[in-house]
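Figure 6 in text form: structure in, sequence out.
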């Protein structure tokens, strides 16, 4: 009986120590992360594992680097202009979030990277941007360049062009990434996030970086 009591007592002490240590670790982790109070997404390896340097072509046929594109906080979406429904809705949502942030005095880029470079020429991207968001930065490149960029952001896509090389659909992921200058990718947003929620969460990161 006495031994059982000692075991129970030691177990209780161990539990308290584990909880206390865990609380200290979580507190230190949050304190060490300048965006800790803003993050809602958790991924294996951390968000810093997303992204890599690139050089792509914008809708003005200019070659631009990641440093030029991400000179401001940026909402980044991977899609294609021939997408019948999902991409236009998502890009429109991102554009509305950018406008809401602008009304708050926060300057954020709205970025679209095609996953269909064969059809998404600079001219096609220009027409798409004019409809979606006049401030949209739309990017294309060679198939190899797009493959590398998509892989860096862990974006899955598949061209279903085996039967029809012109009129085909593309399977793809629909996350929007938030990239901060000098910090890399810090967050991502799913399709269910509203423009207002995206703007509020993005503003948290932008203000925390100041």
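Output sequence:
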């Amino acid at each position: 009986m006495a031994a059982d009591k000692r075991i129970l007592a030691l177990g209780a002490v161990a539990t308290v120590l584990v909880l206390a240590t865990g609380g200290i670790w979580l507190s230190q982790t949050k304190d060490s992360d300048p965006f800790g109070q803003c993050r809602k997404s958790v991924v294996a390896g951390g968000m810093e594992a997303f992204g890599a340097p690139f050089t792509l072509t914008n809708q003005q046929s200019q070659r631009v680097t990641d440093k030029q594109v991400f000179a401001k906080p940026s909402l980044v979406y991977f899609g294609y202009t021939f997408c019948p429904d999902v991409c236009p809705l998502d890009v429109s949502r991102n554009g509305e979030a950018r406008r809401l942030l602008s009304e708050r005095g926060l300057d954020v880029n709205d970025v679209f990277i095609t996953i269909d470079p064969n059809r998404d020429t600079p001219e096609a991207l220009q027409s798409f941007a004019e409809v979606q968001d006049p401030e949209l930065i739309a990017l294309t490149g060679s198939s190899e360049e797009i493959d590398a960029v998509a892989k860096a952001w862990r974006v899955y896509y598949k061209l279903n062009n085996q039967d029809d090389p012109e009129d085909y659909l593309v399977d793809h992921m629909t996350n929007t990434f938030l990239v901060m200058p000098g910090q890399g990718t810090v967050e991502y947003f799913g399709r269910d996030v509203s423009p207002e929620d995206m703007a509020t969460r993005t503003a948290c990161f932008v203000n925390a970086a100041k």
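Caption detail: The first strand starts at residue 55 and ends at 58.
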